[in-house]
Amino acid sequence: MISAGAGARPFSKQKIRDNHVFSAWLHEQAKQDDDGIVPAESALSEKVSDEAAAVSALTVTPREYQNELFERAKKKNTIVVLDTGSGKTLIAIMLLQHVLEQELEDRSQGCQRKTAFFVVDKVALCMQQYLVVRANLPFPVTKFYGELQPMEQDQSHWDAQFDDNMIVVCTAQILLDCLSHGFISMSQINLLIFDEVHHAKKEHPYAAIMKRYYPRSSSLRPRILGLTASPVDTQAIDMDYAVQRLESLMYSEIATVSDAVLEATWVKRERAEKVRRYSRLKSTEACYTDLMRRVEDYARQLPHLNAYVLCALKIARTLGPWCSDRFWKVILTDTAMKNMALQSGKENKVDFSYDKYEAASGALETLRPLISHHQFAAVSTEEGATSSKLAALREILSAAFEENSTTKCLVFVEEQSSAIILADYFQQPGIAPHCMTADFMVGLTRTSNISGLSQRDRMMKLNNFKYGQTNCLFATSVAEEGLDIPACDLVIRFDMCLSPIQYIQSRGRARKASSIYITMMEEDNLEHLRRLRYVTHGAQALRRFCQSLPENRKIELFERPTEKEFLVADTATLSHQNSMAVLARFVSTLAQGTDTSPVPEYVVSGAGSSFVCWVVLPDAAPFKSTTGSIERSKTGSRCAAAYDACVRLIEMGSINKNLQPTFKKQLPKMRNARLALCAKKQKQYSMRLKPKMWTQLPTDTPTRLFQTFIQFDPYSADKRPLVLLSRQELVEFEPIKLYVEADISISARLVKGDPVCVSEDQVQQLSTFTLHLFDQVFSKQFDVKPEQIPFYFAPYLSALYEYERQGGVDWQVLMDINSHRDVTTANHRGLGEFGGVPHQKFVIDPHDGSRKFIIDGIDPARRATDPTPVGVPAHKCRGYLASDKTIMQYSCSTRQNHREKIVFDTQQPVYKAELLSLRRNFLDDDDTDEAKKGQTCYITLQCLHVSSIPADIVRGALLLPSILYRLDTALIVAEACDHLGLVIPLSLALEAFTKDGCEPDEESEQEGQQGQQEQQEHAGNQCNYERLEFLGDTFLKMATTIALYTRNPTANEFEQHVERMLLVCNKNLFNTALNLDLQGYIRSGTFDRRTWYPNLPLLRGKTAKATVVQSLADKTIADVCEAVIGAAYVGGLASGSVDEAVRVVTKVVNHENHTMSAFSDYYAAFTVPGWHLAPGSAGVKATVDRIAEIVGYRFQSPLLLRSAFVHPSYKVEDIPNYQTLEFLGDALLDMAVVDYLFRKNPDAGPQWLTEHKMAVCGNQFLGCLCVELGLHREILSSDAQVPGQIKSFEEKLAYLQEQQQQQQQQAIKGYWALATRPPKLLADVVEALLGAMFVDSRYDYDVVRGFFQRFVQPHLDGAAGQQGFEAALGPGHVVTQAVHLLQRHHGCSRWRFCVSEVPCETRTGIRALTETDCICALLIHGQVRWHAKAGSGIEAKSKVAALVLADLRGADRELYRVKMKCDCDAPGGGD
User: Is the pTM of this model over 0.70?
Assistant: First the structure.
């Protein structure tokens, strides 16, 4: 799966790094559960200072008309109509004060607690009004807006909010949701303030609140206060009727100020209103720039840019060529591009197209070079550089700021882009008049947001304008309505108003005494003239209407049709009106078996002159259908059916008291349970260092010891084998690979010998030799008695005669070593008892434990007084460094003061020696650098000791640290198996418990054993648990699925999924592992120099570590449980038994739903349902014959076979549908595929195994297999769409197969990969048939394996010599094109496609628990560059490849190398 690199070893290490990068990225990506959508900005910070809030305090004295309107509002529901800036908010504050004071009085009398609501239309207004209320009232207040939705909380959350706060400022949707779900009722509200109440019409939340929940007859209804500058839209034909509807809806009266006050206000502003005309703008064709033409040509290939091209053209015409070119430079920021791409991906209010998002991102990113290389002209004020409209605006602003440097100006534009570019233009040097500081303010629309502003950014910009840091704000309509824009003395309508309401509101921003309101119009533009007349006449008509209002008006009650209502636990109310929405919400959480979210199906039929409706629910619902009451209309009948269905669901507990699905809140948690526990969340655990065999010793001297011979292969005369003698027999142990030098390795074999009886004297001899060996070779001088030593070493004596089965302890050499003293300075010239000149002797430096030598004879050409030869290992002794640095000084490590007392023998011989390396870790090839090898030097013996231990024993003993470290690990893991009561081969158990070993090879079989061998060299010759974990996870899924089906074969698929998830989720495995104390047995980290030797008292040397703390993620511990299952499964392959694996599953799931200890226990616990035994009709028996001919298995239960083909929509026969059998068959097929791939590819890692498993276990392949076998003809369905879907897919397959055969002259097994996505029921039927075969055969797994071998395995074998299944795609496929682009064009060899399975998104409802998506990521030089999700691995990889082509096709190679940080020398191989 990775392209071949220049060197084999770095190549394997890079794969390991890539695996870790992908795994970490995948965990975070899967947790996001957003299908690539960038999360919305979080709510504004709560940390707004009290000083900032105090600025909003309304300290002015109420004017007369405000008091008058307040008095009216106290007595009756009122809609206050006042011009913008006329003090509507102050009236609301006064009313809040009055109502809440009365509320405190009522509470003291024991009355029900009530809350006041200040409801706004926009998120931006919520924070503003919250600050106003908090600054002016002493009552507790809170706010809710934005992403926070009531249905995401529970009743206790909202109860606490209403208890703690007397005022709630929120958006209308928040209050509507609270009422809809019963979190609050109208009886708990004392005041409702609606800001900008003119929005209350049609389906607006304001209207919904009043229509659905405001009581018309109750005396307990809350007071209503509406605030607006314009009560109705003047487009209404009959203004009187429109006003009456508003008043009726809001159950309120409109009130405004007296005629005199209103007229005075109008006249004053009339005199300050002006019109500024500008010369006609150029045509669009005349506004093109060179950059515009190039971008437009570029956009023909990238349609996602068309909207921005049109935007730039509009800017070119309205602002000028410089602004048009500048537009591209301004928008091509990371934030702006991300927001534009997000908008491109929003297909509608609900769905998000990940493909469109990625395509738009790629299009914008590839535009960067074109823009960055363009030579932008300097900004100019000369004629022609800007449009006449922009020139006129600059003249207006220059005159205003020159006349008054404190001018505060607000410029209204229609488009976001115009606001941004205008602010940028006036920020250029020499453009803005003196003292003018420009900025922009835009809103967040559903269709466009290129500004990248968060809600907090908008508030900051507003505050900057309010407090004078900026004084000219270019704004869209977001600044027209409601926002607390400070009083301006200059308001300019750069773009014409579209409605009278917009005119009234924007004009209201110019409310200083000397303010000016300017409308800009194009000369001779009749449309502009008509629009100006329309908005001004409309505003005047509205004013005249308000003036004509009578003192009192008769209120028409808003009549609601009578309907049934169902009060749910005194909280929410279910009615005909909201029942369809409640039912739809419930059904959306049952998504399964389809590619789209399910919806209730309503079937309406006539009943005389009336109608009755039958609602059909998805199969996963608690019931399938219900019928409503007879109604006069079709709509009423649907509502009645939904109402009755909801009542049943409420009574069954499937919908809670807040009208929410009972499992909706738990769905993300349940989905995340399918994901791995957090790999980054690590805890500290103690790791077992020594086996009990070494630490729990008897107190007496041993009389019988078990021999283990440590032999080296290949045999070398300079390394003598040793004997390890222990009190207990050691486990069987595989050879240990040791890396003695670079590119040179040997194997240490631990061969069991016969036990030997030993005397006390022999134990003493063994003890003396062992302690001497530790002291002389490793500088560890233990202070222990012979019986305290856990194991002993001895020289090995090989067998002398062929009839001797094995060798043993060389007692003679042992006693010779123990009986001779080391040669010291007293006899450095005479080594008679050792044969004269010491050849290959072990020499130690008594003053420096790091200097140990093996001498190799006298060098007659050198003298003791010669200078130390160049190139010998450095000697750091200070005494030596201060000396004349001769060979005899080099051989001495005494301190300076002692050195001066030594009388050196200048005639002593010089020996050629090897300074032994201090290296202890021979398990890792990375530990073989030159600095750690033995180095040649020249020494004299006067100050050194010649050891009695032969050099060949020393060389063998130097490898003991690595051998003992690995032996300790093996013994501890063997103890873990004993602790669990399991019989698992030690090699497999070691792999299962090893965390930080090598990762299995991830590549295709072409790399073979070499890739695996190279990785083992890198990681200390021990594979980690990941391969076994993958196998164990699959077996765990199968075992628990069989157990659950066995216990309850009638449960629906959803129930089975939930129960299985509770068993197999990593959290359960993690908790069980902790209960079993498995975490201490896990082996992590590398070789440790302080843990390999016994932890005994020392006189010299560093004490061994008593404990080592290892950091383990929760996921790691859970993975080890699955790896142990895999080890038990592999261990039983030789005997053909999986009983040991079943026992491990029972231990690690620790649940009553799985108590089996052998595979046969599954069927023993199964009770055959009665309907299985029915003979079936002749037609059913004919189906048995046909299936037997197709698959080679004859069913004993015809109805069980029939059930495997029954679609959930089929209700003709009273037998279960296929979904439960499909749930079982899916797990069985996964196991068969993984078992085959695991055995056939012993070097393949989890990534490779996952991708190849997905290729034949996904819906794509199984759907094609269903059609290929003709199984689709047996499907029983009442869904009218199913036949057409199957027919279309069958025709597509036939066409593809024919095309492939014509091109290749032979059948290509992977042709199905090119087919469109099949209907899911085709794959379901194959898996259901497999499950039915397993049950019918009395749980005979060989039947499953036989089906796999006959119909699935050939497709896997067909791809064995190919790089995955992509070879079947052909050279023109998008994946192949992307590979060639990376390798041949860009010369990159460090890339890799990684594919994995992840649960479906939470938004898909129950599919998050029952279905799996595939995610593919392309790593380039260790970084994830592109990724995509799809229903299959091939589809996901194709989507990623398409993104690569979109971004890189035509891109410059050097630019690619810079962007991707590529340093590859030449194209390499890859998949």
Answer: no
